[in-house]
Each structure stands twice: as structure tokens, then as C-alpha cells.
């Protein structure tokens, strides 16, 4: 499997977009409604934003600099400065301490001397079977330690959600098979507040099974644009400095 960076750059496409973050937000809102809420709480959106950007800030550094940089310092810069969106001040500090401890354990236990293959990037790939472009955001992707051409995909969620995890596995499977001709070697999903790490075999689902699953999720996508200039396939760094954390459909 070739994993050259240019492999994900596709010719311009006029297919509508299947956005992972829109589907993920819809699933999370549905989970809240089923528990008597209205939608994903704002504090979870803010914490997810802080986690994602803290990991980006950390892994964009060289391994040598990372070894001298406490991730708690980077988290502090991204953490919500006000506690009003949390149920209570005690909850604010409990979440902050739990997330901080989880990130410290995470960065000290794996990939200490490695450079990510993908870091907080949004990628597009045409999926003619769905008549859509799959748009997926990868927080961290590493070259496999077992096979140099394999990929280990990591995703970090503030709170666990089985539907979101399953959907992401299917999206990663379709993306990697379409882009690189093979599934990822593994998909690793962290539920940070629960302190749980899920490791999935990247070859657990066939292409056909994942396409069928994405067809079911497509009704949640909420975007059926007819294409245009913004449909040009690309891999792009997200605009971190200017991004408004409250304006995104989902904070990755």
C-alpha cells in the first residue's frame, strides 16, 4: 500500500460532500435527545475543541521539542477560560483534571519519537458508489510499526459514543481503501473522560459493508450541495488561529 502524501490529492470533483463532522454532530445530538437533553452540551463542544487543538499543537513539534514540552501547558492555552457552560464549577475542574491526566498518559506511552503521517487534516476522496465525496478529518495517523506501508489511525473523543466510533471506523475504511488500495492496519479510538482505549482491526469490515453503512448515515449528512469551486479535492491544514470554536457544526 502506497502512503505517499500525494495519494490523497484527487482531481476536481463536482460530487456533493459527505462530511464526517456533520454526521458525528447529528449522532451526538441524537444521543443527547434520547437521554432527555436537547443537543450536545456546549461544554463538550468546547472541551473537544481544546483536546483536538492541544494534540495538534503538541504533535506539530519535533520529537526533541515535544520531549521538553509539558502537554498540560498547551492544554491550558486552549482550555475554556470560563466555567459558565459547565453544570457547575466543580464539574469544570473535574473535567479539566481528567482530560489533562488522560493526555499526559497518552503522549507518554506511545509514538514518543515519531512524526505523524497525518496531523489534524481534512481530506476528500470521491466515492462514486455513494455519488458523494467523502470528507474526513484525521486527528492523528501514524505509519505502522509492524508494516511500514500500513496506517494506524487515532481518534480522540471527550465522551464515548458507540455510534460515532462505528461510523468513524467505516469512514476510515472507505477512505483508505479508495485512496491507498487497502484498509488501515488499525483504528484506535480514545474515550478520554471514561479513560477507555478501543483498538479495532482495520480489516474488520469489507468495502461493501462500509459503503452500506455510510449509505445509512448519509441521511444525517445535511448537505447536498451541487458542487463548485469548493468541491476541489484537496488535503488542507485547518485554519486553527482564526477558527471560531462555536461556529463549527462539530468541533473535532
Brief rundown of the structure:
The chain is of the alpha/beta class and 252 residues long. The protein has 2 domains: 8-20 and 116-237, no CATH class; 31-109, no CATH class.
What attributes characterize this protein structure?
seven-stranded mixed beta sheet; single chain; 38% helix; 252 residues; 7 strands
Question: What is this structure's SSE topology?
Answer:
Layout lengths: L16 E3 H15 L7 H18 L3 H4 L4 H8 L10 H21 L8 E10 L4 E12 L7 E7 L4 H19 L5 E6 L4 E6 L5 H11 L17 E3 L15
Describe the structure.
This protein folds into two domains: 8-20 and 116-237, no CATH class; 31-109, no CATH class. It has seven helices and seven strands, in the order βαααααβββαββαβ. The protein has helices spanning 20-34, 42-59, 63-66, 71-78, 89-109, 162-180, 207-217; strands at residues 17-19, 118-127, 132-143, 151-157, 186-191, 196-201, 235-237. Strands 1, 2, 3, 4, 5, 6 and 7 form a seven-stranded mixed β-sheet that branches. Strand 4, helix 6 (162-180) and strand 5 form a beta-alpha-beta unit.
